[in-house]
Structure formats: structure tokens, C-alpha cells
Amino acid sequence: MKITIKNCFIVTLLYCLLANSIVMAQTPSIEASSSPTVVVDKDIQQLKDKIANKVSEIRKQNNKAISGFVLKIDGNSMKLSNTEEVNQVKFDDALTKVFKVLGTTKKEIKTNDISKDDYAIVSGVIADKVITANVVLIDENFLVDSGKITEINKEDFNIKVLTNDKNTYSLDIETGTKQHMVNIKTLLSEVVGFSKLKEGDTVHFVVKKTGTEKDNNYSAVKILIIPQEYFIK
Amino acid sequence: MKKETLIAVFLGLLFGGIVAVFISLKSKEIELSTNKVIAPPKENVSVPNLTGIKMESLELSEPANNAIFEKNTIHFKGTAAKDSLIIIQSPIKDLVVKNIQGKFDLEFPLALGENSIKMVVYPKEKQFRPQEKFIKIYYIDSEL
User: What phi and psi, each to the nearest 5 degrees, are found at residue A200?
Assistant: First the structure.
């Protein structure tokens, strides 16, 4: 008796599953017969989207950005040099766009407006060490570093900074230099004057690099001081 | 040379030597007493026992060096020592935060073009050296 009930249950379950699968299998055929073009259009659109995504993915993978000072420029190419390497950049008349960055805004210029010693940032596809430029941005080159103040010249408003990698920088603190100090209690950054700087303080700085500096002497764009008291509290 | 002369020269040299030794000892004493001690007094110096303390190194999972972004804000994600002071500096932003938890996720703005960014972590145990990372990342507007 028990076995019969069990068999009945299995048969009922199989029947339900079979009936359900028949209904599910029939649904698309009804749609397909009623509007075949809609389905085909959908498939084409999906395929198009997939291809577009793949193309964009591949483009992103091959897209690289490089930067450096312009060593040489002619009609459709230029050479960029930075501390690590020299790169060849090719312009594409139909593709390459050139902009000059002016603070927070940009202005479109032409490739023949680029001159030697300009600092250029190039984004494009790289192949055989040649980058075909999609975008060229002419901007300023900044150096960001940090170290300990080893010397303060109060007459010339100059500080000497020794970095962790044993480089010594001579920084001129100009009237336009933004000077901030970390408050050791609140850890907020506060505006300070040159007189607050002490030998032994840690300084984080940003300077503009033109490529013509001598003896690591720069005009500081901004400095952020961590007073030595932070390290002995 | 007479015997008296020799004795006088010998006594003169001996006396001179004694005076010279006395003066040099005295000057050393004076020098020591006038020198200022620039190190904090011994009782104020607390030397924490750092043996066995393992400092968590700075791991930056995002962003990658030389990465290109189409948005003007990114997130610095990674791990660093607990309670360390994190400073992230770029030409447009200085970020100072205390890393209360080991993990950090910090929003940071980008300028159009190249962004040279230096990240320094100052551990709570001041005897440890700060850890640094320097990266260059690019913000190229997708509309360009």
C-alpha cells in the first residue's frame, strides 16, 4: 500500500513537471509566430551592444597615457621626454584633439600650437612604442614630495628639505605659496606664516617643474607642515 | 752649562707642565657646566618596547599607478597601520586623516590631465619610519 502511494506521488510529480515544461517551451513559439521581426531586432540589438562593449573594453585595455616635455615636434608627430624614457607620439588628423589646460578650464588648440619644451599629457593607443594620440593636453608639470626641513633662511624666505630618498630640495616660499600646518590636536590643516616653520618639521610640498631649474631650487606652490611636536607627543 | 742653570730649567719646565695640565682640566669643567642639554630629561623619555610589535605595511589596492579615469573623483582604498596618520597630497588637494581602522577608503578629487599624488603614512609608533607611495594617474574627460 505504502509503495503504491509513493508511486502515485512520483507519477503526479512527473506529470506536473512535464506539463510545466510543455507550457514553457510553447511560450516563445507563440511570440515568435506572432511577431518574428521584433525578436530578430532584439537579437541584433543585443549583438550590437555586445560588440560595442567588447570594442570599448579592448580600447580601454590598449589605451595608455604618457607625459613629458616636448623634445621635438613636426607636422604629424612629436617626441616626449620624461625622467624615465623618450616616447614617440603620432597625431591623427581625424582623431587627435589638442587642449591647453588653464587651471580648471581647457581651450582647444591645434597641433601646430604645441611648441618645444611644453609639458604634454597624451592619451591614446600604444603600439610598437608609438602612441597614436586621441587626446593631447598641454599643462604644467608638478612635483609632489615630502621630507624634513634641515635649514631655514629667514632673510631669503627659503627652506632646505631633505627627503627620505636623500634628495635635497631648496624651496623658495613666495607670497603666493599656500602655507598650511597640521594642528596636532585636531589634525585639521590651518593657514600659517613663514615664521612658524622650524628646522626638524616635516613638510609636504608641491612645486612646478619647468625643466630649467638649477641645484634643485624651486618656487613652492604649496607646503603642508607637520610640526615635530606631533612626533614627540 | 752650570748645575744651577740646569736645575732652574728643569724646575721651570715641570712647573709649566703642571700649570698647563691644571688649566686644561679647569677649562673642560667650565665648558661642561656652560653647555646646555638639548635632549629631554631622562625621566621624560619613555622608550616603548617595540620588540615583537609588527607594523602593518601600507597596501594600496586602488588606484593603480598610471591608471586613466573618466571621472574627476576617485577612491584610495587599501590597508595601513591602525591609528596611523595618512597624508595624501596632490597639486589640488591635501588630505589629512587618522586611520582609525586598518582599512581605508578615501575619496580624492582629480584635476584634468595628469595627477601626481604622494601618499605618506606616519605610524602611531613614532619610532617606525613613515611609509610612502607615489603614483601618477590621469583624468581624461570622456567628452574630450
Answer: 105, -15
